[in-house]
């Protein structure tokens, strides 16, 4: 009986180790990848609205549990939005955050999660900041944006305006 208990305990420990490996909270691997502060016809939310949007990318080899990560449009108030429990960004995947005037995290009929955060991005230029508690993990500052032109991260690590926005996909410059 003791042996069985020990075996079960081992199995339980192993399982928790495996799930810990599969989903981490390595927030440093979450990067701001593309930003659009003046969205005309590029992208609509599930209600048909063309909101400002932020694209995040998980650059890690593991799925990342985003709960507790903060997202904001400036350094003064880092906690304008905090990811709730249950939002996971798969490894190497992208996530679109709609910037509006209300907060919602909604699972759509197709199973994707649509997130609205309660701040907008200024087309005159602003910042996007991700932080854990009061530690800034990634930040981008953008200048005035033209309608339907995004600001996107290039392979060489620099940012540039982009005439071919790619919400939810790898950035492309033509
Ligand atoms: Ca703003
Ligand atoms: Ca993109």
In terms of topology, how is this protein built?
Layout: H1 2-22, E1 23-24, E2 30-36, E3 52-58, E4 63-65, E5 69-72, E6 81-82, E7 88-89, E8 94-99, E9 104-107, E10 113-117, E11 125-132, E12 135-143, E13 150-153, E14 159-162
Parallel strand pairs: 1-4, 8-10
Antiparallel strand pairs: 2-3, 2-13, 3-8, 4-7, 5-6, 5-11, 9-10, 11-12, 13-14
Would you write up a description of this structure?
The chain has 174 residues and is mainly beta. It has one domain: Immunoglobulin-like. The protein has one helix at residues 2-22; strands at residues 23-24, 30-36, 52-58, 63-65, 69-72, 81-82, 88-89, 94-99, 104-107, 113-117, 125-132, 135-143, 150-153, 159-162. The chain has a seven-stranded mixed beta sheet, with no helix packed on it. Strand 11 and strand 12 form a beta hairpin. The structure holds calcium ion (2 copies). One calcium ion binds at residues 73, 119-122, 126.
Helix segment count? Answer: 1
CATH class descriptor name: Mainly Beta
Task: Say which CATH homologous superfamily is assigned.
Answer: Lamin Tail domain
The residue-averaged pLDDT reads: 91
Number of individual domains: 1
Q: What structural class is derived from the secondary structure elements?
A: mainly beta
Report how far apart the termini are: 67 Å
């Amino acid at each position: 009986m003791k042996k069985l208990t020990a075996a079960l305990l081992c199995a339980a420990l192993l399982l928790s180790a495996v799930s810990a490996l599969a989903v981490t909270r390595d927030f440093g691997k979450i990067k701001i990848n593309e930003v659009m502060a003046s969205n005309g016809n590029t992208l609509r939310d599930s209600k048909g609205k063309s909101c400002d949007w932020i694209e995040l990318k998980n650059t890690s080899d593991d799925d990342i549990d985003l709960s507790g990560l903060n997202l904001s449009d400036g350094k003064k108030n880092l906690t304008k939005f905090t990811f709730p429990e249950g939002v996971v960004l798969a490894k190497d995947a992208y996530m679109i955050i709609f910037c509006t005037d209300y907060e919602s995290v909604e699972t759509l009929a197709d199973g994707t999660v649509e997130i609205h955060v309660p701040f907008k991005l200024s087309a005159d230029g602003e910042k996007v900041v991700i932080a854990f508690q009061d530690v800034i993990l990634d930040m981008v500052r953008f200048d005035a944006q033209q309608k339907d032109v995004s600001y996107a991260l290039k392979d060489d690590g620099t940012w540039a305006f982009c005439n071919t926005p790619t919400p939810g996909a790898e950035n492309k410059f033509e």
